[in-house]
Protein 1
Amino acid sequence: MPELPEVETIRRDLLERIIGKKISAVDVFEKKIIKSDRETFAKNLSGKSFSDIGRAGKLLFFALSDRRNFLLIHLKMTGQLIYVDGKGIIGGGHSLKAGEASMLEKIGGALPNKYTRLAIRFGRSGTLYFNDVRKFGYARIADGEELARIKEGLGIEPLTPVFTLDNFKKALAGKKKSIKARLLDQKFILGLGNIYVDEALFLSGINPKRKTDGLKNVEIKKLHTVIGGLIKKAIKYRGTTFSDYTDASGQKGNFSQFLQVYGRAGQSCPTCGTKILKIKEAGRGTHFCPRCQK
DNA sequence: AAGATTGTTGCTTA
DNA sequence: TTAAGCAACAATCT
């Protein structure tokens, strides 16, 4: 469930910690997630460093110092990227608030643990661990051309200049699918997952079952504004932890306290007090207030 | 103990 | 040809 705000939090954390550090070794614990053989994968990384970290929606791409290749990482449902410095301190001493013991518990014990699929070692500086309970995530090498091709197939990115009302309208235009399904579709709008779609629709007063092409202009405008604000605020609070998500220091996100409907089925709507319903829409558990969302 | 679970792809159906 | 719906991926939790 890392969605845009969670992935962006990890990106910013890692930018401070791993840029320019030489990769000394690569341990692949689960071959499935690297999408190539171990030798090729390790050869592409060893001896190089990361010069930058970019993001498109929920996809991270680490630029390599060879100026040719990128390491693409997608966390899918349960992936975590956790950096441990040379002294064994999780997150490299940054933003450590809670006790380290509870943190270790949260990430499944000392690293590497049974869910660690990949470790990228930076000599004595530290190690980046990729944990993933369900093994849906991946880490693979791609060159600039391939990355460009992947980005071409993706939708508009919120929080960038292309996320104008006009472009948002175009991204929604002429589709009979429900607005919930449409907002989840990464070919049109990037970075929203189940949590933020439910929240955005609540904040916009739009029923998730509404057909996309039946939305009024004012509703699209509202939704556009809401999505921008919601994502900004969620990043500010370092994302939402519902079950597995942690930042690069193994810490939970703090946005959960602001969730209005997600995970609150049966509780009362914060606006009107009506019971929040949970239905299935677009193949996903969908939370909404039947009174506020028309 | 069957059914549900956060993301995405690709197959099937219409 | 296109779009919508849904199983599959793997593991865990209820």
Protein 2
Amino acid sequence: MPELPEVDIIRAGLTPFVLGARLEHVTLNRPDLRYSFPHSFAAQLEGARITGIRRRAKYLLFALSSKKTLISHLGMTGNFRFDLPDPQTRGINHGFKKHDHVILELSGVNSPTPFLIYSDPRRFGFMDLVDDPQKSKYLKKLGPEPLGNQFNGAVLRQRFASRRTPVKTALLDQNIVAGLGNIYVCEALYRAGIDPRVRAIDLVDGSKRRSLQLEALVGHIKDVLGEAIDSGGSTLKDYKKVDGGTGYFQHSFKVYDKKGQPCSTKGCAGSIERIAQSGRSSFYCPVCQT
DNA sequence: ACTTTGACCTGTGCGC
DNA sequence: TGCGCACAGGTCAAAG
């Protein structure tokens, strides 16, 4: 579900409500999500205060007064919201909903309710508790943040130089650049006029035109992510902001999920096609993405 | 080191 | 209305 913009909106939405809050009680409604929760997970969290929330790639990092960091990945359908238990359904998930797997009971801040709920129907998300997030297996190999100065044409050229895989696939590889997902890769490639099937290495070793495309691609990635954040992210189905509102960037999609629709590039007579690449859908205009 | 494939889950929408 | 299938914002382990 959530790519970098959505995770960043969630981070921003949580911050005023959980910064400084104390984790009074933690309830796990099942022993695992994608992976098992770490040993004594709830007990280790209880009593700690949340001293900061950051985002790295698609991960949320909750810094705790215990000096541990709670790492949360939302997978495809993970979400946080504030809610109260429903007395009518006390039998299931302690009064919360079917896929409400983690209940964080907070105190000491002015949050909408004391209960911060992590919900995740498909359970592709996971949580971990670590001493040093930089060293964690999940974060240590990640590529640069696409919105940072560490991500630029020279860096992308270097990272593409050994990759014979399609540029679409390469951009989804979090070890090349961290935070892009299927939507924003499709949209950025469209803006850059690059066919998603072009091999990454060919943007490096190919023609002058290919080099210019790679250089432009960097700017389009930054632009599309920035615009999506400004629009509150993209809501397809599960994604909601912490306050329950939806994002709006889905209304700005040019190609994602637009199969059969006319290309919106001025003067282009093409229509959007859908192809499968490494098991995911790619949407693109075969006329103006070459 | 790189590439490809399948696996992990549940829900929804479609064609019949 | 029900059934079966395809597909969905992601990532990782395994195998070549």
